[in-house]
Design a protein that fits this description.
The protein is 18% helix and 41% strand. It has 2 helices and 17 strands. Strand 9 and strand 10 (154-161) form a beta hairpin. Helix 1 (3-30) runs antiparallel to helix 2 (251-270). The protein is globular, with a radius of gyration of 24 Å.
């Protein structure tokens, strides 16, 4: 075979490789996760075919309502004689490997020791699942993110998340967690920020274990938000909730890998 023939064969092979890389890059950019549940509260979540439900107790004028102005679920208990709780419709199909995202906005409450749940995965009968994402209020101007999980022998451990301090009233935050079996990784950030901060439990580990010492095959059926008991004040706007497949690697990462491979092919071609 002549040098010219060999060169043309290599050129043809590299051209095919570049076409394949380009196709893979386009495919990577179009990959989307399977979504098991999504609610952005752009319409009243207490109306429609699959409504949220609310439980109001006590005499203090507590409320759980849709805020049409903020397009968010508003959970509000103004004093320690009231209790507002809301529950999502049934969620199914997610298995034990998935990603959960929640976007929320803390709002001021009367001063005092106040705590409530932003997102608490539960079974249909009310048992805790996954982890619990909560807020601990310090007076009426700031809050601290808290996460409940199993840490060592403590199956109901609260981890206080200093990485997101100070949490400012009226500022929107995002939390996402990815579960695989009994292990959960958690990230948080202000919604306006680009970069996620990976959170750690009270032992300093980035791996949170299922709260309550659950089995690896356990899963959840619904979400709860609000108060755990009539002993606190609480106010939060929940803006968006998504349950979807975990994407590993993410489409952008795949695209970068493919682009890098194409670059190496071009470099070899020029050589």
């Amino acid at each position: 075979m002549s040098l010219e023939t060999t060169y043309l064969a290599k050129e043809k092979g590299m051209s095919k490789s570049l076409v394949i890389c380009a196709a893979l890059a386009l495919l990577a950019g179009s990959v989307s996760a399977e979504v098991y549940y999504h609610e952005d509260f752009t319409s009243d979540p207490f109306a429609g075919a699959t409504p949220w439900t609310k439980v109001i107790a006590g005499t203090g004028g507590s409320s759980a309502a849709w805020s049409s102005g903020k397009q968010a679920l508003w959970v509000y208990s103004p004093d320690k004689t009231s209790q507002a709780n809301v529950y999502s419709p049934t969620i199914s199909g997610q298995g034990t490997e998935y990603e959960v995202k929640v976007k929320f906005t803390p709002s001021s409450v009367p001063s005092g020791d106040n705590m409530g749940y932003v997102l608490e995965p539960m079974t249909a009968t009310g048992s805790n699942r996954d982890i619990v994402i909560g807020l601990l209020y310090s007076g009426d101007s700031s809050a601290k993110l808290i996460i409940r999980s199993t840490v060592g022998a403590d199956v109901w451990n609260w981890s206080y998340q200093d990485a997101l301090l100070p949490m400012v009233m009226g500022t929107t935050y995002e939390i996402k967690y990815q579960r695989s079996g009994q292990d959960i990784q958690v990230w948080g950030k202000k919604a306006a920020d680009a970069d996620w901060i990976q959170l750690v439990n009270s032992a300093g580990s980035t791996t949170f274990k299922l709260v309550g010492g659950q089995a690896a095959d356990s899963t959840f059926d619904k979400f709860h938000a609000g108060l755990a008991s009539i002993s606190s004040r609480y106010q939060v706007y929940i803006d968006e909730i998504t349950v979807q497949d975990v994407q590993v690697p993410e489409p952008m990462t795949v695209g970068l890998l493919v682009t890098g491979a194409a670059g190496l092919l071009l470099k070899r071609r020029h050589a």
